[in-house]
Every structure is written in structure tokens, then in C-alpha cells.
Amino acid sequence: xxxxxxxxxxxxxxxxNRASELATQxxxxxGINYRYGGNSPDTGLDCSGLVRYVFKxxxxxxxxxxxxxxxxxxxxxxxxxxxxxxxxFYNTLRRGFSHVGIYLGDGKFIHSPSAGGQVRIExxxxxxxxxxxxxxxxxxxxxxxxx
Length: 147
Description:
Layout: H1 4-27, E1 39-40, E2 44-45, H2 47-59, H3 67-70, E3 75-77, E4 87-90, E5 99-105, E6 108-111, E7 120-123, H4 127-132, E8 133-138
Antiparallel strand pairs: 1-2, 3-8, 4-5, 4-8, 5-6, 6-7
Helix pairs in contact: 1-2
């Protein structure tokens, strides 16, 4: 008989492994050029294109196209409960959920910033990002866009 503790440990290990898959795939995108509307590392990625590509490659999960649409998928979580692989959203264009990145842990996230930039890691505690933080979502493997 499997105990509840063993089941909880197995579930935690599965979550950790899945988050690691996302982080590994995201880190492989470092240095890819930003491209508005971009959804391929070969031609460039915008913020939501990066998130969609990483989730598709790591988990086979299809996410919506825009950061606003992605902000409606998964479970809403607080900043103090962030885990690697969670999505972090920002208000960068004077409207909510205009930017998205993937939380890596230790207050860092990876994202595709803007024209002229490349996929990079930044601190959520930098003043620019701190004052524009607009929420976070946790998406589990297999949780896809509602069609």
C-alpha cells in the first residue's frame, strides 16, 4: 500500500521535474532576437511567442497567442507563492497583461523584452519590473487553451 506521504512526495517530484523541463527549454532560448508577433526561435520571438514555444516544446501544451489570452489559463497565484515554471505578467503598455515571462526561481524570470532586444533573464525586483507586476499563473502539463 502506498502512503499519502509517498504519494505527496511523488507528486512534488513530478512537479519539480516538469518545472525543470520548462526552465531548460526556456534557457535554451537565451539570446534569441525579439520579433513582434514572432513565434519561432529561427525568426525571432515576442514575449508570448517565447512562452508558447517553451510550453509546446517542453510539455506539448498549446497556449493562446497573446499575453492577455494566456493570462486566463491556469491557476492564479500570488507573487509570494511563485515556483519555477510559473508565468509572470506585467503591465508594460498601460494595459494589464501586456507582457509575460517565465519565472525561474530566486526572483528571476526569462522573457523576450522588446524591439532590439534578445531573450534574457531579469530580476523581478528591479524597479521597472516591480512596479509593473500584474499577477502570475500556474499552468500544469496538459492544461491547454480552451477551444
